[in-house]
Design brief:
Blueprint lengths: L1 H13 L8 E3 L1 H11 L1 H6 L3 E5 L7 E3 L1 H16 L6 E9 L2 E8 L12 H9 L13 H12 L3 E7 L4 E8 L5
Parallel strand pairs: 2-4
Antiparallel strand pairs: 1-3, 4-5, 5-7, 6-7
Helix pairs in contact: 1-6, 2-4, 4-6
């Protein structure tokens, strides 16, 4: 049932018909809510998910439910590999956008070969950041890419090895629009 729902969401997202509301979203609240929803799964994998948000971070324009869905999809995609480690969600204000980076705290570097295909695609094939992922395992990641795009942002995976980033997405700040 979940895969059928994801396929339906992806089809709607690709055609721009997936309902996305636009309003002010507090990224910190959304990140903490996603962590709370994933608590049981995180604990079962011995993974800690740390949330770091600087004081005074502006709200973003977006759909709080859909932004939470993106965060949940990104973290869930990595949980099979991240056993016994710490993942970090770090938000920062970058120009007219808020950037949210998901990285592994230790920067041990999850092996590129082991990453889900959507995360490792660029590293393996030299594809462009944000290129659509292939395969059933990538449904959540493909939906996340479309959701972020529908909200005026970008999503890149495996594109910032120096910072240990596994995924980075941006959304426009509320105050700059």
């Amino acid at each position: 049932a979940l895969v059928a729902e994801q396929i339906s969401d992806l089809a709607l997202a690709e055609t721009g018909r997936l309902p996305v509301m636009t309003g002010a979203v507090d990224i910190e609240t959304t990140m903490l809510s996603a962590r709370h929803r994933l608590e049981v799964t995180l604990r079962s994998r011995a993974v800690t998910l740390e949330v770091t948000v600087p004081p005074g971070l502006p709200r973003v324009l977006g759909d709080p439910t859909r932004v939470g869905q993106v965060i949940t999809s990104l973290v869930t995609s990595l949980l099979k590999l991240a056993e016994g480690t710490t993942l970090e969600l770090i938000a920062a204000h970058k120009g007219g956008f808020v950037e949210v980076m998901l990285r592994e705290e230790s920067h041990r570097g999850l092996p590129v070969e082991a990453l889900p295909p959507g995360f490792a695609r660029q590293a393996r094939s030299g594809g462009q950041p944000g290129a659509p992922a292939d395969g059933a395992r990538d449904l959540g990641l493909s939906i996340a890419r479309h959701l972020i795009r529908l909200q005026g942002g970008t999503l890149h995976t495996g594109s910032d090895v120096e910072r240990g980033a596994l995924a980075v997405f941006t959304l426009p700040c509320e105050t700059d629009h």
